[in-house]
Each structure stands twice: as C-alpha cells, then as structure tokens.
Specification:
This protein is of the alpha+beta class. The protein contains seven helices and ten strands. Strand 3 and strand 4 form a beta hairpin.
C-alpha cells in the first residue's frame, strides 16, 4: 500500500494544517456574518464541521484508485458533506438549542465550499496516487533491467524495414526513417520522418526484431532510434528526458538511462 502523502511529507502536513486552519477561519466568518451567530457558536461549528471534513479527507486516501466509478465518488462526497453538516448542527444545538432558526440558511454555502474542497482534494490525491504508481513501476524496472533490454534471439531475423497496412495501401518504412515507437495497449505508434503510423503489434515484438545497436528501449512504453538523439536532460528524481533532433521529448526511466549510457558510451 502506498504511503499516505500527509505522513510521508512534512511539506504536505504543513500545507494541510494551514488549509484546515484557513478553512475554519473562513467558515467561522461566514457563519458569523452570514448566519448571524455569535462568535462562540461560529467557532465551535467551524471546528467540528471542518474537523470532520479533514478526518474524512485523511482516510479518503486509502480508497483513492479503488473508487473510480463516478457513482461511488459522488456517493462518498455526499456522505462526507452530510457528516460535516450534521456535526456542525450538533455542535450548534449543544450551545444554543433555542436559536437554531438560522441553520437552514447556512446549508447552501456549507455544501458549496465543502464540495469544492472535496473535489480539489480528490484530484490531488489521484495525481499523487498515479505518480506513486509510476515511481513503483520504475523502481521495479530498475531492479529488473532485463525488462528494458531489447533482446535479439538468434533464431529470429531482425527487421530491415517495418510494414504498416493503411486501408488498401501498405507503407514500407526503412529503419533509418523510424524516429521512435510508443506503446498503446496492443498497438504501437510509429513516429517517422514522414509522419505517424499505427500498427497492430506489441512492444515485445519490436524488442526481439529491432537491431540493438540502433534502437534502445528507454522506457517500458518507448523505443528510440539513437541516431536521432540530440541530448539527454535530467527531468526529475531518477527520470530523464531524451530530446530528439526533430524536437520531440521522450521520457526515460532509470534503467533506460543506464542502457543509454552503455550503448552511447557516455
């Protein structure tokens, strides 16, 4: 299971605390001026309702990536908002049970601001979750560099060109015109000096049929023609960008970068 970002990062904890305090302050001000409540009621309501929202948001991380159906996400958001509103109501009742006629008028802005906060949190969580997944995959690739290496079994002839069927036409692409290949499920996209072509083929096929001296698999979803590489730049933690002479920018994993250094003698 991926580590919670608020546990793993001090910056995230500080940012979350600042946002929670800011949310309490904004909520208290709105309740005081819009709901015409006293300061004690406004602050108590805000602490309880925003606190319940934050606790729910914290645990929401553990189902990020699992609840991807829109119906499930909407249902969860509605449940969290209902809990937050109910918590604020109970806090108000405990302080001023005889002066609750104003509460109904505050429900619209509670739902509006709560929904906005939940959507932003959900999107941020999903981006972090996807980034963590990608990092885990790249660590696995680094630990098993053989996955990145293009193999050339002796019993299978290497390609000297790639054929692509386009309707009634068949394009024959010489290897020296092939810039790079990107995976897309059971298909690949061939980027050439004359355009792009989609071929119903897997990356595994090209792993075993392209010459290893010319084509390097820099990522699990990308094979590049090293003749067109212009420069290699550090992009992030254990991530590099490969710039091609035509201006294209490709991502290279740690294992792919290691393979580039070996093949290009850099």
């Amino acid at each position: 299971m991926q580590t919670h970002p608020f546990i793993n990062s001090v910056v995230c904890r500080i940012a979350a605390l600042a946002l929670a305090v800011g949310g309490c302050c904004v909520s208290a001000l709105l309740l005081y001026y819009y709901g015409h409540t006293g300061w004690l009621v406004a602050w108590l309501d805000s602490l309880v309702s925003v606190g319940l929202f934050c606790v729910s948001g914290f645990f929401f991380w553990h189902v990020t990536g699992i609840l991807r159906l829109p119906q499930a996400q909407i249902g969860l958001a509605a449940g969290v908002l209902a809990i937050s509103v109910a918590g604020g109501y109970l806090a108000d009742v405990s302080v001023s049970p005889d002066r609750m006629d104003w509460f109904a008028s505050t429900i619209p802005f509670r739902i509006l601001f709560g929904l906005m906060g939940w959507v932003m949190l959900a999107q941020w969580y999903y981006i972090r979750w996807k980034a963590a997944q990608l990092e885990e995959q790249e660590h696995e690739e680094e630990e098993n560099p053989s996955v990145e290496t293009i193999s050339s079994p002796e019993d299978e002839p290497l390609l000297d060109r790639v054929s692509v069927k386009d309707g009634s036409r068949i394009h024959l692409i010489p290897l020296d015109e092939l810039l790079y290949i990107q995976a897309s499920g059971d298909y690949v996209t061939l980027f050439t000096t004359n355009g792009q072509y989609v071929k119903e083929q897997t990356m595994k096929y090209f792993e075993s049929h392209l010459p290893v001296t010319t084509f390097i698999r820099i990522h699990r979803s990308c094979i590049v023609n090293c003749a067109y590489i212009m420069r290699i730049e550090l992009f992030g933690k254990e991530t590099w960008q490969v710039r091609l002479k035509n201006g294209a920018s490709l991502r290279a994993s740690a294992a792919g970068y290691k393979l580039l250094k070996e093949r290009l003698s850099i």
